[in-house]
């Protein structure tokens, strides 16, 4: 259905304690998308999430882009599946029109990769979403945070804030990730991959 909205979910943990963590880069991207579109997050009545309904990007001919539900689960990262599933059911959105924006340790900082389906790469937030939806066939916007240094545990690494050097680049990086989401919902996965994968090859 062409009039079916998209559900774009930014993963992270709730509360100011986690706001600057690498694990919360999904929240950062969603906040920027809301800012760009004038969307305001509000607690959703049917899901443990803050949501904003917006139009994202422009379609050919200058028409407004598709209707998009921006959502940030208000649960902890590892139990993101319930809110995502509840929102998808409430709005009647099929998995192929769901995009999850998340941190990715398997690609370098300042790299963005997009895919449809595939594994979760040890990401517990994605694993819970897959379980709740009953399928892996949803889009992922993978925002690279790089591997932990030395012998640091991955769980500890993603729950730390970005370094000072990374924070200098972070606004541009988050802006690029928001652009990737916009291109995905307006022109499709191949267009978004073509631009963002090639840019960082």
UniProtKB/TrEMBL annotation:
GO CC list: cytoplasm
Group of enzyme by EC: hydrolase
Gene Ontology MF terms: peptidyl-tRNA hydrolase activity; tRNA binding
Record-given protein name: Peptidyl-tRNA hydrolase
Organism from which the protein derives: Myceligenerans xiligouense
Site residues (Stabilizes the basic form of H active site to accept a proton), renumbered to this chain: 103
Primary residence: cytoplasm
Protein function: Hydrolyzes ribosome-free peptidyl-tRNAs (with 1 or more amino acids incorporated), which drop off the ribosome during protein synthesis, or as a result of ribosome stalling. Catalyzes the release of premature peptidyl moieties from peptidyl-tRNA molecules trapped in stalled 50S ribosomal subunits, and thus maintains levels of free tRNAs and 50S ribosomes.
UniProt: tRNA binding residues: 18, 76, 78, 124
Cellular compartment(s): Cytoplasm
Domain of life per record: Bacteria
GO terms (BP aspect): protein quality control for misfolded or incompletely synthesized proteins; rescue of stalled ribosome
Subunit relationships: Monomer.
Protein family according to the UniProt entry: Belongs to the PTH family.
Keywords: Cytoplasm, Hydrolase, RNA-binding, tRNA-binding
Cross-referenced PROSITE patterns: PEPT_TRNA_HYDROL_1, PEPT_TRNA_HYDROL_2
The organism's taxonomic lineage, starting at the top: Bacteria, Bacillati, Actinomycetota, Actinomycetes, Micrococcales
SUPFAM superfamilies according to UniProt: Peptidyl-tRNA hydrolase-like (SSF53178)
């Amino acid at each position: 259905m062409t009039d079916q909205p998209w559900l774009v979910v930014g993963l992270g943990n709730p509360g100011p304690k986690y706001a600057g963590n690498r694990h919360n880069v999904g929240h950062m991207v969603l906040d920027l998308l809301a800012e760009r579109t004038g969307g305001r997050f509000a607690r959703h009545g049917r899901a443990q999430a803050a949501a904003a309904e917006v139009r994202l990007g422009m379609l050919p001919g200058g028409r407004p882009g598709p209707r998009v539900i921006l959502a940030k689960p208000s649960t902890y990262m590892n139990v993101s599946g319930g809110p995502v599933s509840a929102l998808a059911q409430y709005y009647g959105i099929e998995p192929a029109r769901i995009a999850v924006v998340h941190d990715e340790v398997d690609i370098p900082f300042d790299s963005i990769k997009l895919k449809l389906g595939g594994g979760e790469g040890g990401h517990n937030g994605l694993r819970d979403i897959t379980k709740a939806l009953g399928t892996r066939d949803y889009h992922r916007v993978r925002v690279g945070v790089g591997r932990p240094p030395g012998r640091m545990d991955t769980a500890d690494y993603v729950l730390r804030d970005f370094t000072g050097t990374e924070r200098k680049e972070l606004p541009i990086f988050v802006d690029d990730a928001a652009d990737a989401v916009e291109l995905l919902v307006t022109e499709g996965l191949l267009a978004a991959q073509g631009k963002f994968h090639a840019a960082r090859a």
